[in-house]
# Entry
Amino acid sequence: MPLFEKVLYSTDFSPLAEYALDYVKKLKEAGAKEVIVVHVVDDLSIELPDGADLLREKELFKILPEVDQEYVTSIVERLEAIKQELEKEELSVKLYLKYGNISRQIVKVADKESVKLIVMGAHGKGLLTEIILGSVSTDVIRNANCPVLIVKKMEE
Amino acid sequence: MLFRKILYPIDLEKASLEAKPYIFKLKDAGCMEVHLLYVMVPSEWGLIPKGNYNSEEMIEALKASMSEGYVDGLKRTFRKLQEVAREFEEEGIKAFISIIPGKLSEVISSYAEENDIKLVVLGVSAGSLSFFKIGEIVDIIKASTKPLLIVKSKVNYSSENEK
Ligand SMILES: Nc1ncnc2c1ncn2[C@@H]1O[C@H](COP(=O)(O)OP(=O)(O)O)[C@@H](O)[C@H]1O
Ligand SMILES: [Mg+2]
# Structure
């Protein structure tokens, strides 16, 4: 049964999200073949339409102020690095860089790509370090239409 | 060994059983043990000593302090858990059964700690994930120090879960 065939990995590039990538790789043994890597930005200096695709809508990138262009470029580089890392494991990879409400965009991409599973951290780069379940995770768990693997890690 | 030991809290409702195939599949990614955990929530048991009531004898002994009807129901639960355990054994996954009284989130998190669990797998009904029920599942996730796989049942069993 292809229960884990297509996996969405959502990252804010925090250490915990990075650790969650180990789980994605391990799932290859349980049948994972394709990984959809998603990052959502909601903090540009200008407003874009909710759900704007910053990787595929090239003309959007051109209208961004220079600071935003630099920021987006640095994120694309980080996403490309993850892609390479997963391809080394012989997983096929598709990247998404979306603009808008974070949890809503994650769930939207999951639906559009018909993924079988979402893998994400329990918290991220929130300002409060004592947060044990972030708002993005909570909302994805609530709204996802597929199973969600929430990665936690004991503080050393 | 990210998936070696899995804790599977199970109430034998449809939603919790829907998580089963995922655990079978995780065998390919290294799952060797599954720990079935049935939690006796306070409304069910009132006051009984802490412990793991995972044998017919221990359950039978509860008749000294609890109603016969309840204890017999618990025995049926235990036998059903044994059937589920057998399914895992047939798939080549070693299975253990625990029946423990307490608060759901506390029993799950302390069991996971004490037994070096690598992953908790929860089958939840759409109902318990709806806005009003999110508390229950969120409490479990917050209390856990281990990763969790949350399998949402496609069907809405909320009415079944109403307490
Ligand atoms: N902007 C984002 N893009 C993609 N995934 C994200 C983003 N923000 C958070 N996530 C995912 O959600 C997880 C939990 O983060 P979050 O709920 O935002 O916690 P916190 O409140 O601590 O920041 C992260 O580990 C990551 O997997
Ligand atoms: Mg965050």
